[in-house]
HTH araC/xylS-type domain-containing protein (Flavobacterium chungangense), 562 residues
Amino acid sequence: MFKQYIMILVFLFGDQFHAQENKVRASDSLIRKTYDYLFERIESTADIKNRQAFYLEYFLQKAKRERNSKEIVNGYKNYVHYTSDKFQLAYADSMILTARKSHDNELIGSSYLSKGIVYYSRKEHKNALDNYLIADNFISKTNDQYLIHKVKYHIASIKYFLGFYDEAISLLIECTDYFRKGNARAYLNSLHLLGLCQNRIGNYGLCSKINEKGIQEGIRLDNYEMKDYFIHSEGINQYFKNNYAEAIKKIKYSIPSINKNKDFGNVSVGYFYIGKSYWNLHKPEMALPYFIKVDRIFDTKGYIRPDLRQNYELLLKYYKSKKDLHKQLYYTDKLLKADSILDNKFIYLSGRVRKDYDTKVLLKDKLHIEILFKKRKYNDFIYIGIVVLFFLVVLFIAYRHIRNKNIYRQRFEELMAKNEADSKVEVKNVDRGIGNMNKDTVADILRQLEKFERDKKFLLKDLTSVKLAAVFNSNPKYLSNVIYKYRGKRFVKYIADLKIHYLIKLLKEDSKIRKYSNSALAEEVGFSSTKKFSQAFFAEVGCPTSYFIDELNKMSQENEVR
């Protein structure tokens, strides 16, 4: 059992012992290697992170062992170039601390320059400029022309960003003249930035010449790192020449390579000018996705510069045309945020930045949009409420219609099932009087009522209990009491129901009568008005006259078919 544990331990840790042994052997083999050799190994193992990490550490520890300040600074600088973004500034600070201990102006200036470059890559231009100026203070005390011109290049890049194009151009001309002799990448970088400056001051022809020269010089020097940047620059230049299709083509071609370099600033600028090109081609729907990409970079990286401000003005213009208050409010807030950042970065330049929207106007517009947005939301709420209410009313009406049709049908069938005898009022035997009336008086009134019904005297118009009582040689009170007792109805309903039952019999028997209008039917059975007739018919029959007649006609047609 003990042997098995030993075997497991050997299996688990054998590889680590072997790796450690190899590391020791590798370290032994590097003892006599130069710093140049180690730096070459760092660059050549960029794709093998664990190997590169070994050489980075060995380089720095070798320099520390040898107490070589210059190479210790270079060791930290290696880490700045090859470590993850979050550790870059920490290594840059270590580099500066080591350089300051050396009291070497060249070393101190170079360290501050490297830290400034880190800030510039993050688009933290104010911090970058602070470090460049400190670097210039130390480097200007030396005779190192490479560092002197390197500082000039980076200060020129800040001046370009801030809009001091003429001042940047004079520095860049010096840089191109110097770097042409022995530093291909720095020379091409200087040419590229010089072209951008010429574009910004309106020298579009000269910008095109510089971009073409940059590509050709890259071929001559066998350095293709800047090729896509020159194409990107020329794409933007073509936009200013109003060659929008060509601008879109060139910028789209260059963006994948620039994006691979994690250069979000130039990617954002590229997206913006693609969007503007589509916009000027009257294709706002195609421009919109690119403007949104610029906004996304602003969200994630906080990158904004004066010309990119128009990105939000165009987004506002687009959504205003669509009457989208929600998006107008969103991009108004974004424009205000961009202005705040720009004013902070360009305190001494803000007066020169052209704004189509003054901040006060923007705030006023924002307030107006918010009011409209709230009003629209309130109106939408009311509108939705009205729509829902209307839907419920329609639903209720439909339900009532279906329910009523079922009720009408049921009532119609009940009436059709009754025979004539059923429709007549039953004559009851008089066994006693009513109140003050003796039974003989009651019997007399009942006999007269039977004759009244039989002779259809109820068809007379404007018949009242007073008039009928006079005919019966009785009084209205006695007549009404007998009708209520033996017919079960008040006088008015009694007369109305007699008229309606008579009409139902007519409608069943005579198809011509069915063609009468309501007013004609009311006249036929002695109603004083069409309204009273319609009310009385519905109250007794349980459906409108039109429905009753329609059903009778359908029944007649069915009988004819049979």
Summary: The two ends are 105 Å apart (CA to CA). Residues 430-561 form a domain with the Arc Repressor Mutant, subunit A fold (CATH 1.10.10.60). The longest helix spans residues 359-417.
